[in-house]
TrEMBL record:
Protein name as catalogued: 2-keto-3-deoxy-L-fuconate dehydrogenase
Organism of origin: Alysiella filiformis DSM 16848
Gene3D superfamilies associated with the record: NAD(P)-binding Rossmann-like Domain
GO molecular function: oxidoreductase activity
Keywords linked to the UniProt accession: NAD, Oxidoreductase
SUPFAM superfamilies: NAD(P)-binding Rossmann-fold domains (SSF51735)
Pfam families tied to this protein: adh_short_C2
Family: Belongs to the short-chain dehydrogenases/reductases (SDR) family.
Leader sequence segment: none
Amino acid sequence: MRLKDKICVVTAAGQGIGRASTLAYAQEGAQVWALDINEAALQSLKAEHENIHIHAINLLETEKFSQFFEKLDKIDVLFNCAGWVAAGDVLASSAQDMQKSWDLNVMTMFHAIQAVLPKMLAQGGGSIINMSSAASSVKGVPNRFAYSVSKAAVIGLTKSVAADYVTQGIRCNAICPGTVESPSLHERIAEQAKAQNKTIEEVFAAFVARQPMGRIGRDSEIAALAVYLASDESAFTTGTCQVIDGGWSN
Ligand code: NAD
């Protein structure tokens, strides 16, 4: 059990990478608080493991989000997984796209970190994991302007927190996946197919074709990295962006 008795919080735990990571944390012995706006998804997640505790919340309701952390006496791991993909290049991006990307992809992390850091410092340490993306300062990806700006900010946020608290037992790392199988990916593929008058199979094939390994990633592969960063095995790792993209950005 690599996370035995650790108290973990995962945002966007209802589906995709957040869900896979929540399950992996629970299976490694952690008590996991799963947060998501989708209550039905949380209920089905809770049914999968007794170590999973759920809290339905809109992370953009800042006050309620910060208040959630007050009820935790201890927190060992914060996995800020929530994020939203805005499509479009700079000319196609609206101010609303920019604002929502900033609010959900960056500010939720800021608020969560402000809420947990005093507890982590008081208990002598903790691991913060922030979901970035290969589409960020790692790699320029077409039609991902607002998204990439926000995910690059996540890397800056991560490195800054890591530098400020490195002597106090706090570790902070970012995960930068390439394209990963998830419900939202399939929604994006369907939208793109409609917009480009293509079949879903054609658009999916185009996603796969840009992958050097000839396949996209699995949520379980990202969850395995999230377990490592949460565990004491990664005690010497902080301030990093862990690129996990099947060689896409290489
Ligand atoms: P997803 O996008 O399919 O699911 C996101 C979850 O977030 C959903 O359960 C949704 O209900 C929840 N959510 C959305 N808005 C919320 C809000 N305001 N409050 C609370 N919950 C909210 O999951 P995914 O594709 O695995 O993506 C998870 C993270 O990984 C995101 O940050 C994403 O940017 C990042 N990422 C994903 C990929 C990919 O290809 N899937 C690649 C790189 C990075």
